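Supplementary Text 2. Reproducibility record for the structural model of the 128-residue chain.

All settings were left at their defaults, and a single model was retained for analysis rather than an ensemble. We include the record here because the model underlies the residue-level annotations in Supplementary Table 4.
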Amino acid sequence: QVQLVESGGGLMQAGDSLKLSCAASGRTFSSYAMGWFRQAPGKEREFVAAISRSGGRKNYADFVKGRFTISRDGAKNTVYLQMNSLKPEDTAVYYCAADTRAGFLMVPKETQAEYDYWGQGTRVTVSS
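Retained model, structure tokens:
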């Protein structure tokens, strides 16, 4: 079992920066890859970014490349999503997820079905 708790969401203005955190517990942190997904109002949940178990491989959705950065801290059992140059279209509930079947060096996956544990989400609202 893996427990995931997101934090850091809030009400922002376009152009602002925000850092989301996802604290993990229950299993050895390095034993699973991590991903961030988001669900905007009235839309399907979509992939945002993912990071491998080692932290050495990262994967980003095209719409966040150059603006968002995913990272993980093994000492704190936490994965982060640094979001810069926020846009109104980034408004969504952001979820972190764990892929416990990922190989250590595997490219982290974009498919939601590959992730078997999910947090409750943290809301980010960006006004123009």
